[in-house]
Amino acid sequence: MKILSGLSEQVKQYLVITGNYWAFTLTDGALRMLVVLYFHQLGYSPISIAMLFLFYEIFGVVTNLVGGWLGARLGLNKTMNIGLAIQIIALAMLLAPSGFLTVAYVMVAQALSGIAKDLNKMSAKSSIKLLVSDGESSKLYKWIAILTGSKNTLKGIGFFLGGLLLTLLGFTGAIAVMTGVLVIVWLFSLIKLKQDLGKAKNKPKFKEIFSKSRAINLLSAARLFLFAARDVWFVVALPVFLAAEFGWQHSWVGGFIAAWIILYGFIQTIAPKITARFSGQVPNGIDAAKWGTLLAFVPGVMAIAFANDVDAFWVIIVGLMVFAVLFAINSSLHSFLIVDMASKDGVSLDVGFYYMANACGRLLGTVLSGWMFQVYGLVACLMVSAIFIALAVIFAAMIPKTVQID
């Protein structure tokens, strides 16, 4: 307690925001795994299970646009706490008797969870901008990397947690525990999070949800294609391929993907150290383009290896590990750049627009992943991934080196 009392108010607020984000991420990852495994046990088809998450992704697009505007008008502390409250409602809905848990009902609950997730993420990322003084870009990069990387590591742990809770407590018991924990976190956040954090001095109009900054528009386009490039082969194609080609059980597939996400999150947290060794300066759009170019080679080389009958096991294992490292660095660079370039007055408007593009990329990749894999196979998914990354590189390279910040 003495250590905490000696911390600056700036650091205390960062810890509250990070703790809030961590708790939400754990429940979000655990909930996804719980829903997949539980409804698989009930005999739902893979397509039906996939449909449960359709609204989750679609509402993420809308939430980031509207959420950024709300954050600028109401304050980021309020939008973050609203996100937590909505997640609690989404979890409580799943406490209904199993007879009520139809596909349509769970889709609504997942829609609420998607809204909650993007409100929480947008608020957390935007808040960091306000806790770091102007001219401290290196510190901002470090804090963003820790927040983003730890979130993805905890998301992977959440997958493990979801399976464990389902085994030990059953579906209803697991949901009840997560709901109780999140209520405690929400009450703590209501008390400790600074009032009016991020509220714009001039109330933005709703039409201002779309960014007028060329740099932010270019970065948002790069982000869209970057995440579409990941999900086009990662969301549907990869799990199905692992199960069908290698004969892995669902637990092995889930555990492997969770381990990958944990590795990816860890690399994100140390991305500032990795990029500093190569450039020695605060990164810009050109740096994002360079690291993106390296990433584009990975799915391309994997596709060529598959086409030449290289052992599929080693292509997947080695390719995924290299992809995890390079994708994590690219993602961390993008996350820093948007917060660094965003205007401090109404920061959530710029960040919300950017994460709207991120959600569009996830949605595009998810839809294409199922269709491309079913019709053309994994090699086609990998080739599309390489093309998408190349597009992300082009947009990142066009970002001006010097961005005027209001």
Question: What is the fold's blueprint, element by element?
Answer:
Elements: H1 2-5, H2 9-41, H3 46-52, H4 54-74, H5 76-93, H6 103-131, H7 137-192, H8 214-234, H9 237-246, H10 250-269, H11 271-279, H12 285-307, H13 312-341, H14 347-375, H15 378-397
Quote the average pLDDT.
80
- Calculate Rg over CA atoms: 21 Å
Series of secondary-structure elements, N-terminal to C-terminal: HHHHHHHHHHHHHHH
CATH architecture: Up-down Bundle
Identify the CATH class.
Answer: Mainly Alpha
* Derived structural class: mainly alpha
Number of strands: 0
Question: For the record, what is the CATH homologous superfamily label?
Answer: MFS general substrate transporter like domains
Give the percentage of residues in beta strands: under 5%
In short:
With 406 residues, the protein is an all-alpha fold.
Which key terms come to mind for this protein?
single chain, 406 residues, mainly alpha, Growth Hormone, Chain: A
Structure description:
It is a single chain. Helix content is 81%, strand content 0%. By secondary structure, it is mostly helical. The protein has a single domain (2-397), classed as Growth Hormone, Chain: A. Helix 12 runs antiparallel to helix 15. The longest helix is centred in the middle third of the chain and has 56 residues, at 137-192.
